[in-house]
Amino acid sequence: MVLSRPFSAVHLPPSLNFCVCFVKVQSYFISTMPSTSSTQFTFWRRFLSPLIKPRFKRSSGATLPEYVPPPPTNEQLEWADLAIIDLSKAETPEGRSALAQEVVEAMNSQGFFYVINHGYTIEQTRRIFSIANMTFDDVDGGEKKKYTGKSPAVYEGYKPRHTWQIEQGVTDEIEHYNVNHDVYKKDHPSALRPHLDEIDKFARHNHTHILTTILRLMATGMELPEDTFVNMHRFDVAGESSGGYYLFFTAPFLLDNFIAVRFMKYYPRTTEKTNVYLKGHTDIGSITILWSQPISGLQIFQKDSVWRNIKHIENALVVNSGDVMRALSGGFYKPTIHRVIQPPKDQAALERLGVFYFAMAADDVKLASVLESEENGSAPMMGEWRRERTEKYGTGSMRPSSKEDLVEEEVILGVVVKEYN
Ligand SMILES: O=C(O)CCC(=O)C(=O)O
Ligand SMILES: [Fe+2]
């Protein structure tokens, strides 16, 4: 540790000198913190950022290899009949109250819905898919290793293939790259750096336009004040804190918000052991925004106990809610079980590229129903839930349910979590 720079303010009055030294030592401490843990926080980074040497430069103008999406399947699968929410109608109060009812109905019937007119053009969306593809195809193994998430409790950076158990003796073929919604919070592989501003805009658009509108519609659908859920999903936790003594000195180290853009690539399976690529599950977080892509395989488990397929709609979003919305809404919005199986024959040999925005509440949000007036002491905090669920996922810790066939389960923080085969 080189102390000469942090302690270079020796000509200032002692009290000021102490402050400068304190801040600089803090800044050194924070800049060296392991970025995978929940101890590295936006507030301090923002506050001290002028004092921290940038770890990489932004640049732009690099060419982006174009990803050409494959055609949709020609096979006649059994498709789920999902509602289409036209987000452009949310611009007026009348439009919003009509859409809120549509969202409630869609959530109660299928649990998934499409969103169109979300504000991104086909060209903008295609560029994001090109960036996603490049993240897997144009980064070498050494760099991938360097940017692989260090903790199983946090989805950050790459998640390599073969880290989850699908069934006995079968692991996953899925590679991730997770980007915190605060895109500049961490360093990224060199191929991605010229495109960080574009990813940043994408994260902000997903958050401030799409997620926020959906959360408002869901609150309105429950006759709650429009911003009830939005307030729990602040883009920048620290930016909204009041700056009181406690928050200033303590809470920033405890708070974060693990909303992330996720790029995902499924590689074709070479073993015939199972056609399941991602086991039936409900999502850990609150809202999942899936940018529709043409390779089939995503299925939802419907009320008549039939798995039905999600059809691709060009430049639409496929939206669903997860465990967190169930908790916050007191069961009003229940998550729908879904899985990914091997794509149909005409697509089975293709790689399946996905782009997502996974929203979670901020770590300091208690996962209790907003309808309960009494404080629910046993409800977990978002941060605990996120860490426990993420850490246990795919480890094979689930056990067969004694009540339901083909279901495995375990109890996490007092909540029964299930997976479906
Ligand atoms: O790849 C997909 O289509 C869905 C993935 C998914 O359900 C998930 O990552 O939670
Ligand atoms: Fe999912």
TrEMBL record:
Coiled-coil annotated residue ranges, if any: none
Keyword Nucleus applies: no
Gene3D superfamilies linked: B-lactam Antibiotic, Isopenicillin N Synthase, Chain
Record-level Gene Ontology MF annotations: metal ion binding; oxidoreductase activity
PROSITE patterns: FE2OG_OXY (PS51471)
Domain Fe2OG dioxygenase as annotated: residue spans: 257-361
Top-level taxon in the UniProt lineage: Eukaryota
Keywords, in A-Z order: Iron, Metal-binding, Oxidoreductase
Homology family: Belongs to the iron/ascorbate-dependent oxidoreductase family.
Family matches, as PANTHER family: OXOGLUTARATE/IRON-DEPENDENT DIOXYGENASE
Protein name: Fe2OG dioxygenase domain-containing protein
